[in-house]
Write a structure and sequence with these properties.
It is a single chain. The chain is α/β, with parallel strands linked by helices. It has three domains: 3-69, Arc Repressor Mutant, subunit A (Orthogonal Bundle), CATH 1.10.10.10; 91-156 and 264-294, 3-Layer(aba) Sandwich (D-Maltodextrin-Binding Protein, domain 2), CATH 3.40.190.10; 158-262, D-Maltodextrin-Binding Protein, domain 2, CATH 3.40.190. The protein has eleven helices and twelve strands. The strands form three sheets. Strands 3, 4, 5, 6, 7, 10, 11 and 12 form an eight-stranded mixed beta sheet that branches. Strands 1-2 form a two-stranded antiparallel ribbon. Helix 1 (3-15) packs across helix 4 (59-87). Residues 300-308 have low confidence and may be disordered.
Amino acid sequence: MDLLQLRYFQVVARYEHVSRAAEELRVAQPSLSRAIARLESEVGTPLFDRRGRRIRLNQYGMTFLRHVERALSELDDGRRALREARDQVLGRVSVAAETLLTLARLLGSFRAAYPRAEVRLFQATVEEMERRLRAREVDFCIASQPLTGPNLHTVELAREEVLLAVPLGHPLADRDRVTIPELADEPFVTTRIGTWPRALLERLFAAEGLTPKLSCEGDEPGASGDLVSAGLGIGLVPAMARQLATRHQGAWVRVDAPNCHRTLTLVWHEDAYASAAALKFRDFVTSRPFMSHCLPEPGEGTGNDGTA
């Protein structure tokens, strides 16, 4: 059993698809299949269930994967520690989040405060964030939905109301509040399944026995304001977006429904190696109210309609 076999197994287990894994690893598919077969021979049991050309990680593979990910992450941590000691730098901090736009000011401020820190940012769903934390591919996740898993530590950063964004001229634009049943026939701009705006939208409608009508499904929650402004529908947006928006031409209406809010959290794996940059980032994010990191300074704010 060698390190390359374990790396191959980790990627094949992630995709449960040999051709996709071979493409990512940039190796020939037959070579990858032989490497996995040799690994299974060495551990003495099949790690995948095979049905024709499809493979699925079985119970033995799941058990083995947990140990492989732990071992590979320890080796990666060791390499990072050596590099940081050699280069005498703060090292790298990797962050995953569901939206990137609202973190631009936060990460810019951190880089200005610690220019010797290397910052990597990933956009990910909840499931992808959990996997990246488990595999030690990221140091932190900034999430709007709960992350679950062993040894994950969570700190609440902010709790904010979620508002309804509507285009100018829309019949609801002059309303102060609106109920979910009143929105039953309205087309919604939202994000794909697995993201927090979609989860909140479906939860609010399900509580009324309704299903939302969708006009647009995207990957970037921060783009919803622009899509609403373009007249593609209405959408749920966090209150912070009202202060961050620079192009949104529309109105903001409160939703008369319980728990119409989002909670932002910082999550990390307690057993993972933390570089000096990661420790500085954690202190930086939690040292003062989170919104003060993300919102414009006085004089840079936006108006009530979301324009500068």
